[in-house]
Q: What sequence folds into this?
């Protein structure tokens, strides 16, 4: 029997949440926390996007240094040769890629406006995969955008062609959250079985079924004799109604009646890191965890009804399916109510030393202290939030990586009308 792995897409799809986003330092910390939790893969960004490049290259440096060891970092790009070439040029140590093309009639007509045919999509995708192979990519996933509204026979052909070209996985993208769990199972089973390829499930939550479809899609791939890779986002972040929630998908496989002890998940996963990851991500996005969120919501283990409270006190299994300790919950949360020293963009050395002393970090000399202070100031400007303990510790442990992650050089090449306008402005006497 195959195994179920998790590919978290918070740093690629989650950050596309409208009106929200993450600073590059925050994305980096999420990768570190995903690694601590043992998540198989993080789709960590866009290697064709200029403002991502320092962050992407710096995170791959963390892999080389042994900071990120369990979580593979993969880049997302369109399934066209130019994007693949540019990605490997921009991020030379990139090893894992996901290539995306639209496969439904709606998307092919609605996005390409009749300029592309299904045959063109196959050709573009095959060439992109072959290009990735030529650059030595270790894992190549091919994404069928809008797979849930695509012709199933075409998807099977697409998956077969991509595998023959060198792809390792087929990603079934329910881009609009259109599928129901049974339909997801039936379609993914056919693709995995007939194309004989590992399948990634990528479900959006427009109809509230992203988690259910994800686990049923994973079951289909396993039942068809292949490995399954569930795409998730922490706390269900993502475009529109979000992506399948990481923790909910994990618990569904580990605890539900139809999955418990029947399907094997990646042995590296440490459920006790759940609470820390979810809390940090909520803070970074500035989006509180819903009170009734499974596992990590404030009411996930709260009981008020007399019957429920009595039953839970007698035996927690009466009204609790799993233990809060399994998730890393249970430690008392300390809330400062008196004097508090924080680090910000205008912080001074004495307050700064106090904060690090509380973290049990001692600077070797004044040079180190003042250098880290400057980085912490920049980090506060960068995130526009009070820095967390894990961010402060990261800056201390990896100061050069932190500096690189926070460095963004804006694209600026004046040409045409802009060049003329700026030349005129420079001649104006003040």
A:
């Amino acid at each position: 029997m195959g195994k179920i792995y998790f590919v978290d897409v918070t740093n690629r799809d989650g950050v596309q949440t409208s009106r929200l986003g993450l600073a590059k330092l925050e994305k980096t910390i999420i990768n570190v926390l995903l690694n601590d939790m043992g998540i198989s893969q993080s789709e960590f960004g866009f290697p064709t996007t200029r403002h991502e490049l320092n962050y992407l290259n710096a995170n791959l440096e963390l892999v080389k240094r042994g900071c990120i060891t369990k979580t593979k970092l993969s880049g997302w790009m369109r399934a066209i040769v130019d994007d693949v070439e540019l990605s490997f040029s921009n991020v030379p140590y990139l090893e894992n890629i996901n290539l995306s093309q639209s496969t439904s009639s709606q998307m092919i007509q609605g996005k390409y406006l009749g300029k592309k045919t299904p045959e063109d999509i196959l050709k573009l995708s095959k060439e992109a995969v072959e290009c990735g192979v030529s650059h030595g990519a270790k894992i190549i996933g091919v994404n069928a955008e809008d797979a849930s509204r695509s012709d199933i026979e075409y998807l099977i052909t697409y998956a077969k062609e991509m595998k023959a070209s060198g792809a390792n996985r087929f990603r079934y993208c329910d881009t609009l959250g259109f599928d129901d769990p049974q339909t997801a199972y039936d379609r993914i089973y056919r693709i995995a079985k007939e194309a004989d390829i590992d399948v990634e499930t990528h479900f959006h939550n427009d109809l509230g079924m992203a988690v259910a479809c994800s686990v049923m899609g994973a079951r289909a791939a396993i039942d068809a004799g292949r490995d399954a890779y569930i795409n998730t986002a922490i706390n269900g972040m993502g475009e529109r109604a979000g992506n399948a929630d990481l923790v909910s998908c994990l618990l569904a496989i580990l605890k539900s009646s139809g999955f418990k002890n029947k399907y094997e998940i990646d042995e590296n996963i440490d459920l006790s890191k759940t609470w820390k990851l979810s809390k940090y991500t909520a803070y970074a996005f500035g989006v509180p965890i819903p009170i009734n969120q499974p596992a990590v919501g404030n009411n996930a283990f709260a009981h008020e009804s007399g019957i429920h409270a009595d039953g839970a006190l007698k035996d927690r299994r009466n009204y609790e399916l799993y233990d809060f300790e399994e998730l890393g919950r249970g430690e008392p949360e300390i809330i400062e109510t008196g004097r508090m020293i924080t680090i910000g963009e205008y912080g001074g050395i004495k307050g700064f030393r106090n904060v690090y002393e509380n973290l049990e970090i001692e600077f070797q000399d004044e040079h180190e202290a003042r250098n880290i202070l400057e980085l912490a100031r920049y980090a506060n400007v960068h995130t526009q939030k009070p820095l967390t303990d894990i961010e402060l510790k990261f800056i201390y442990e990896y100061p050069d990586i932190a500096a690189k992650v926070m460095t963004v050089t804006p694209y600026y090449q004046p040409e045409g009308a802009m060049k003329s306008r700026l030349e005129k402005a420079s001649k104006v006497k003040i």
Notes: The mean pLDDT is 92. Strands lie at 3-8, 41-45, 72-78, 96-102, 139-145, 169-174, 198-203, 228-232, 264-265. The longest strand covers residues 72-78.
